[in-house]
Fold this sequence. Notes:
CATH class of the largest domain: Alpha Beta
Mean pLDDT: 84
Oligomer: single chain
Radius of gyration: 21 Å
Order of helices and strands: EHEHHEHEHEEHEHHEHEHE
Amino acid sequence: MYDTILVPTDGSEGAEAAARHGLDLATAFDSQIHLLSVVDERSYSSALADLDPTIGEQREQFEQQATEAVDRLEELVSESSVTCHTAVERGIPHEAIQSYVAEHDIDLVSMGTHGRTGLDRLLLGSVTERVVRTSDVPVLTTRHEPDDRSSYDRILIPTDGSESATAAIDLGIAIAERFDATVHALSVVDVNAVAGAYDAGPGIPHLLDSLEEGCEQAVAAVEDECENRDVDIVTDVVQGTPYRAIREYVDGEGIDLITMGTHGRTGLERYLIGSVTERTVRMSDVPVLTVR
Length: 292
């Protein structure tokens, strides 16, 4: 499933955390890792570099930093049996990452959600968010390095039954198979959507029942797939604000990894949408694997 994993890096702690998680997956799936650092061409003007020595020196400094960032992670990967490829590119970071994904048939991108700031900035949260929104391959985002636990033991799949949420099911279960993990399927009845349906009046209880039934069907679909693949599963349907409910569930159940879609249902049937995913990516203390 994941033959090639890309880790973009700017030398920050966030990038190193992403590399360690990427390495965990590469080891489990017998994948190759690609390490990429992008020198943001907007930080200097190539056209003026020959005329202004200062600009040329600045460009060289950025390129040196990018090379050192890749070298540090290459040293980390060299301690394992995983095959590693490295590259330093110039361009607009999120565009260069997407181009690299397409040119090298990357199957998954592992990125930190926070990078460097100021003149050292090569990869930032905003870059990660753009990649998450536009990537045609799954993106694993993380804020923290793996700890000493047995990697991914409990994997959460939030679902609303939408096509995007369904796409995330296979990813979560595939990882659960490799790590002998338990899948947790969660669907959230969005109380905000119900509260906004003021025209429903007396029909609100019926609306709640309808939404809850949809959530039950969504988690049942995950349960069926897990049973077919002999993976342990726990299911739950709760009421609340989706991203808050997801966060509370993660804390309460000791979740190690979240896999979720980047788009969900719309209108009154909306339980999980892009904004929920983005908030989860920004706020989660555990890695989040997103898929379109």
